[in-house]
Structures are given as structure tokens and as C-alpha cells.
Amino acid sequence: MSIITQQNNEQVQEARQWVDPLIAEVSKVVIGQKKLVHRLLTGLLCNGHVLLEGVPGLAKTLTVRTLASAIRTGFQRLQFTPDLLPADLTGTLIYNPRDGEFSTKLGPIFSNLVLADEINRAPAKVQSALLEAMQERQVTIGDKTYPLPDPFLVLATQNPIEQEGTYQLPEAQLDRFMLKVHVGYPTREEERMILDAMATSSPQLNVEAIISPDDIIHARSVVNSIYVDDRVKDYIVSIVWATRDPAACKLKLDGLIRYGASPRATIYLTLAAKAQAFIAGRGYVTPQDVKSIGLDVLRHRIGVTYEAEAESVTTESIVEQIFAALPVP
User: Of 103, 117, 182, 232, which has the fewest CB atoms closer than 10 Å, so is most exposed?
Assistant: First the structure.
């Protein structure tokens, strides 16, 4: 092991001391959903927004609320509805007739962790206002621009099965989400544990705050310093390129991909792989780190054609074929 890698390992071990206690604290309330908790941690460590998709009742909102309670930081839950206005999100100017001047009232988006519940229910104007906040980490009210606090993270949820009263998220906004996570059902054993813990009119949902925003910001600096070998970097680039030119990788996907992943996918895949190494306590990235997080980074960045939809070919199956075809360094 090189000296640089050994130093990285020591830094990671020191900086990640809060990771296991935080996961344990969240697990007091959220039973199962370990993958979901890890993906939310990945978003925190990489300063990347996370979109959660799953049927109702899978503890998406509960997990985000519990994670926010375990961090000594600001938290706002925004229920997105079709009649929501951009000012309800970002804030507005209020006229004061006494002195004839306008004062600014900042909206609920000025917080550290923002839960955008059922994000696909909001109309285009609200999505546009949220897009500026997600990408630029600032909000424009009137003729002034206000920076958002650091850390700032949007954790959004959407229901994939209900279409009435919903708006499809534009591709530009989907691309701003670092991860799109599909939340699945718990196992039979986990569901029995959920029954024992939650089948009461007053379930215990209290958790203690484990870390502060400063701990997260420090951990991000350590994540940025995690070592990525040149062969792993080439592997990441090959994965993203395969979504644009599958024939070059000898993949039989002709006519199935409408557009491939952008360079933002390359950046996010590298950052997310570093976060996986950090959570595992390593100061270097392995190809398995890339494979473990690749589907969540890429599934919403590939557009499939009508022919693919007719043949029931999904973005998930395309990503799985790419990982199976490319040689692992």
C-alpha cells in the first residue's frame, strides 16, 4: 500500500467516526431501508441532491425526517401541490405602506435540508424556481440574489404509480439530481419488525442529534481527497461513453437509446464512488464502489426510444448490460 493511500485511510477513519452512530440512530426509527440511508449519506457527503421514487408507505418521508433530526441543522418539509407558487418556495417582496418600501420575506427553501415531498405535483414555474436553487445554490427575489446556506441539500420524493395531478419532471431538472433511488419493499422479517415497532397510535420516533453541519463539511473535504486510480477513472469514462455509443462496446442496443449520459454523470459517478469508499472506511476507490452506485447515478440520465419502450427495455436494464459488458480493471 502506498504512503498516500495509507494517509488517506487514516484520514477517512478519523473523519467517518460519526457514520456508524448516525446510521444506528436512524435505524432506531427506520427499520430496513439500509440502501436508502446509505444513498442519503452519499448525497450529504457529495453535496448532491437525491430523488427518491417509490410507492406510498415505504418510509421515504420518514427516513428523510429522521436523518434530518439526527443532524443539528435546519430542516424544512415542503408539500408540493398543483397550486403551489414560486413565492411559496423562495419568498417574496412585501410592500410596507408606512414607509413606502418593499421588504424581503425569505421562503422555506432557505434551510440546510429541504424535503420536497411529491415533487412531481408542482407546476413548471415552481420547478424552474427550484432548479435555480438546486444548481446555483442561490435564489433571486426581485432584483436581488440571496445565497442559500451551506450545506444545502434537496431530498425529493415522487410516486411512480399515480399520474393524476402530476407533472413530469423536465430532463434538465432530473439531471441536477445526483442520485435517483428506487425505494423497494422491506423483507418479510423487516416487515414483522415494522409491525412490532409501529403498530401503535403513538410510535416512538425520537432520535438524538449526532453530528453538526461542520462535521459534514469536513467529511466532504476528506471525500474529495480520496484516491482514484487512473484505471478506475478510465473505467468510469468508459461506462458513460457506453451510454452514448453502445456499438463501440459491442453492445446490441441499436435504436434503443435516444440520448446518453452527459459529462455531469462522469463527475457524479466519481464523487459517489468516493463517498462509497468513505462510508466503507477506505481512502481509495475500487471498481466495486463504481458498480454499486452506478445504477442510481445513471438511471435518470439515459433516454430510451419508443422502440425500447415497446420492447420493455428500461434504463436499468441498459445500465446493467453496460456493466456486464465492460471489463473491470
Answer: 103
Distance CA 290, CA 277 (A): 10
Contact 70, 206 (CB under 8 A): no
Q: How far apart are CA 164 and CA 265, in angstroms?
A: 31
Q: pTM of the prediction?
A: 0.88
- Distance (Å, rounded) from C-alpha 225 to C-alpha 204? 39
CA atoms in the 13 A half-sphere facing the CB of 246: 22
Residue 18 is placed in which grid cell?
460519526
- Residue reference for cell 435555480: 132
What gap in Å lies between CA 166 and CA 186, rounded to an integer? Answer: 26
Residue 295 has phi, psi (to 5 degrees) of -65, -40
pLDDT, tens digit, 9 for 90 and up, residues 165-192: 566 777 877 888 999 998 888 889 988 9
Q: Which three cell numbers stand for residue 294?
A: 452506478
Residue 6 makes CB contacts below 8 A (sequence gap 6+) with: 283
Q: What is the largest CA-CA distance in the chain?
A: 72
Peptide bond into 56 cis (omega under 30): no
- Indicate the DSSP class of residue 249: G
Q: For residues 273 and 236, is the Cβ–Cβ distance under 8 A?
A: yes
Cell representation of residue 36: 436508502
DSSP lists the bridge partners of residue 76 as 114
